[in-house]
Specification:
- The chain is an alpha+beta fold and 517 residues long.
- The protein is 32% helix and 19% strand.
- It has 17 helices and 22 strands.
- Strands 9-8-17-18-19-16-20 form a seven-stranded mixed beta sheet, sandwiched between helices.
Length: 517
């Protein structure tokens, strides 16, 4: 990795894509004949690893426990009570435009990314205060912050003058080592409180953003918050704009990816659950699969959800003597509190002025609203036929006892925010409450698993896995998948897949003192 590129700071003349992992044209692109690999987990991370390996000639076997690919981005058929066939997802995801790795992989199935459409804004709504839109800001600091102060009703001169300006400057001074050393042990809630800004500014601009990482601010590392604020706002050459698929994820992403893999000779086995792993002869690994013959491989990528990785390693007693580091790291993986996703098919439309997507601030349960009948074709068609609307509600770090309770609470809070929904009848509902996402609590950075180093021949991938450069959410999953594939390729003498990213340091990086006040 080139130091001159990877350490570039976020400044007006440097807000552009940078090559973080360059391709090596002098090194063979194809893997030697006979190279094989097993990838456990068919979400973004696993499919990313499998696609890169398969197109380099590696014989890939991809195991996914669910009936369909996708992980938390997965989708599956669902029949409504009126007999209408729909495809539904785990929940709405924003495809941010600086997800360079994920978008490069998606171009394998759609070179023009024609299935993506702009959403049109990122408003934060509240019962207490007028909505704020976080899109349309300049890409480079300090102009993006100046524009935010100029147009945001939450941030005024009083906030600027009354804030702890040294602490606020930390948002502009992201630098991995320093930021982690100073703020990983601090809770994001304490960091935000220390900024000294108004309660309104905290609620509308910071807390809603923090909760989108599946955690309450009191349970999220301040270093992770600062890193993600840099990644999404201050060090992002594309601004905060994002897109979403124009149809369901199964149709436009996962069925095409499965076909792409199979054309490359990969075996895609859905409904195949890995039960345990154990060392095998010749520096190989054996994977026991429910109801199937065991697999043996020299190159194993574990791209499961964080809790599933913890369970898989715990169910593999032979690992303790040969891979103690993997056992220790897996046991310490933190899983976020449950998140709830409730999709409601209503008999009446929402008001025409409602945005397609809204983040929600300071409701007890509800964290976001997505109007699916304005987002993707199957829901649009259902709404056009019935005169209704399809609305999806999310709650992160949800404390409801069950999915139905979460739905009822979110529906009540929706009616308070959007009164026209109060009298709408719910014709159908799909509700989920699950704990499958990662979280990064204070003090967790030192024990975060990395792609390599846990055990010889085993690579880890997923949005719970650390990377040598900045990424988040779906992009982190894709990046770790590609890094896992690159490590396999390096071992067999093939060149790496290129990885791109934005500036890796903040505008003020290196200019602030090294101690926290």
């Amino acid at each position: 990795m080139s130091r001159g590129l990877s350490w570039d700071r976020a400044a007006p003349m440097r807000m552009r894509q940078h090559v973080l992992v360059p391709a090596e044209p002098a090194v063979p692109r194809a893997a030697p004949a006979g190279t094989e690999a097993v990838v456990v987990g068919g979400g973004i991370a696993g499919v990313s690893a499998a696609v890169v390996l398969a197109e380099r000639g590696v014989a890939v076997t991809l195991l996914e426990a669910a009936p369909t690919l996708g992980g938390r981005l997965g989708a599956w058929p669902h029949t409504l009570s009126d007999g209408t066939e729909q495809v539904v997802e785990h929940g709405f995801h924003a495809f941010f435009r600086h997800y360079y790795t994920w978008r490069a992989l998606l171009r394998r199935i759609d070179p023009e990314l024609s299935f993506l459409r702009p959403i049109g804004g990122y408003p934060v709504v509240s019962r207490e205060w007028p909505a704020e839109d976080l899109t349309g800001l300049p890409a480079a600091p300090p102009f993006n912050l100046m524009a935010l102060f100029a147009r945001s009703p939450s941030l005024g001169l009083r906030d600027l003058l009354g804030s702890d300006q040294r602490r606020a400057a930390e948002l502009l001074a992201y630098e991995r080592r320093r930021t982690t050393a100073l703020y990983d042990d601090v809770a994001a809630a304490d960091f935000l409180a220390g900024l000294g800004m108004s309660d309104r500014a905290q609620a509308m601009l910071f807390e809603a953003f923090a909760r989108s990482f599946f955690a309450r601010p009191a349970e999220l590392s301040a270093a992770e918050l600062i890193a993600m604020f840099h990644y999404y706002f201050l060090g992002n050459p594309e601004g905060i704009g994002f897109d979403a698929p124009a149809t369901d994820y199964l149709t436009c992403i996962w069925a095409p990816f499965q076909a792409c893999l199979e054309r490359q000779g990969a075996q895609v086995r859905t409904g195949s659950r890995a039960l345990a792993i154990a060392p095998a002869a010749g520096h190989s690994w054996q994977i026991d699969v429910a109801g199937e013959s065991p697999l043996v491989t020299r190159h194993l990528v574990l791209a499961t959800e964080p809790g599933a990785l913890r369970e898989l390693v715990a169910a593999s007693p032979d690992l303790a003597s040969v891979a103690p580091r993997l056992v220790r790291l897996a046991a310490g993986i933190a899983v976020a509190p449950p998140f709830a996703v409730s999709r409601l098919w209503l008999d009446a439309d929402v008001a025409a002025a409602r945005p397609t997507f809204s983040a929600v601030s300071r409701e007890p349960t509800l964290d976001s609203i997505t109007v699916y009948s304005r987002l993707e074709r199957p829901s649009q068609q259902w709404a056009a036929q019935t005169g209704g609307a399809v609305v999806e509600l999310h709650s992160y770090a949800c404390d409801a006892a069950d999915a139905r309770t979460a739905t009822e609470r979110m529906h009540t809070e929706l009616a308070a925010l959007w009164p026209e929904t109060a009298d709408a009848r719910v014709l159908d509902r799909l509700e989920r409450l699950e704990a499958t996402a990662p979280t990064f609590p204070p003090g967790s950075a030192r024990n975060r698993p990395q792609v390599t180093g846990a055990a010889r021949g085993i690579r880890l991938a997923g949005d719970h896995v650390g990377t040598p450069f900045l990424s988040g959410l779906m992009e982190r999953a894709a990046v770790t998948g590609v890094l896992a594939a690159n490590d396999v390729l390096a071992e067999v003498g093939a060149g790496p897949e290129e990885i791109r990213g934005g500036p890796q340091r903040g505008l003020l990086a290196g200019l602030l003192p090294g101690s926290r006040r």
